[in-house]
Design a protein that fits this description.
This protein is mostly helical. The protein has a domain of 73 residues. 51% of the residues lie in helices and 0% in strands. It is elongated. The chain starts with 15 loop residues before the first helix and ends with a helix. 18% of the residues are buried.
Length: 105
């Protein structure tokens, strides 16, 4: 006997704008907490380290799960992290969308 598969909210359509807004908000909160870091003076190694590393980005996937009901794989995150929110959004949104659509075709 066939069983019903529980689909996430809006399974027919990836809620890109909702995810974009949530990720941008997450980025702003994450980087605001790091701006006043007294151990990150200018002219040091911290100048070349990404603003948010890939390990921290795993928490952003929880935001995506909240918005879509879908938990993207950690493989959508670029190794090393991202220098700014635009780089993150340009890379993550298409990768998350592809994963989402692949799962719910």
């Amino acid at each position: 006997m066939p069983t019903a598969v529980q689909m996430p909210r809006a399974a027919a359509h990836f809620p890109e704008q909702q995810v974009r807004t949530a990720l941008a908000k997450w980025w702003a909160e994450e980087t605001a907490a790091r701006q006043d870091d007294p151990f990150a003076p200018r002219g040091t190694l911290f100048d070349v380290v990404p603003d948010v590393d890939s390990l921290s980005l795993v928490n952003a996937l929880l935001v995506v799960e909240t918005e879509t009901g879908f938990k993207p794989p950690v493989t959508v995150i670029k190794r090393g992290g991202y220098q700014d929110s635009n780089e993150m959004l340009q890379h993550l949104l298409p990768a998350i969308r592809r994963s989402y659509e692949k799962k719910f075709r």
